[in-house]
Amino acid sequence: MYKIGDEIDGHCPRCKLNTYQIVAATDGHSVMLATCRTCRNQFAWRPEVSVDAFRLKAIKKLQQLQRSKMAGPPEVSSRGRRKGGDFDAPLKALEALNGPALAEEVRTRLAASARPTATAAAGTDAPASGVSSTTAERWRSLTANLSWRDGKPYQVTRTYGIGDVLLHKAHGLGIVERVVHANACLVLFRDAETVLEMALARSALDR
Predict the structure, then answer these.
(1) Is 184 exposed, middle or buried, given 0-12, 13-18 or 19+ CB atoms closer than 10 A?
(2) Number of domains making up the chain
(3) Cα–chain center distance at 76
């Protein structure tokens, strides 16, 4: 049974992500319309897309990209590796640009200030993405009154501070929790808590 104003999980066609949504129209048994809490867009509700489906779609995109590169001349770019959604990809990019000392310093700071991950209580539903319930709840609390209009597209050349809101192509709406280095910040998303590079000179991106 659903009523208008209830919170429900679903897939947002604008964000192209699984997001938290608000029931906007219902017949009492099924959800007819929903409003995405991230982009505030209203649409016909659709259930969450499984993680496996996301991975399959990503694999197909990579295969298409590989075929297109094989058909044309080789292309060298340092920007592609900055789009990773985990800790390793941006740290490896930092290491490549600035040497191993900087990347190791960031890893040490993260390890020293890492928050403990709480185990979800028995009987509760964990988010479909597999992220810890503590991370998801913290994101919901910090972004309760935010929408995509409050954020700016993430760019590695921008400088971010604690509390800044940004929009990431892979993760959606995020909020900066810590600045771990002059060129790296820890950002909280609904489905991940990850390190992103920042304040990089444009000349460094062309190496």
Answers:
(1) buried
(2) 2
(3) 26
| Side-chain-side CA neighbours of residue 124 (13 Å) | 11
Mean pLDDT, residues 73-91: 45
42: β partners: 35
Neighbours of 145 (CB within 10 A): 6
Residue range(s) defining the domain that contains residue 141: 76-116+130-205
Q: What is the pLDDT of residues 12-46, one digit of tens each?
A: 999 888 899 999 999 888 899 999 998 989 999 99
Mark whether 158 and 180 lie in a shared domain.
Answer: yes
Three-class SS of residue 181?
strand
CA dist 113 → 108, 110, 177, 198, 199 (Å): 9, 5, 12, 19, 22
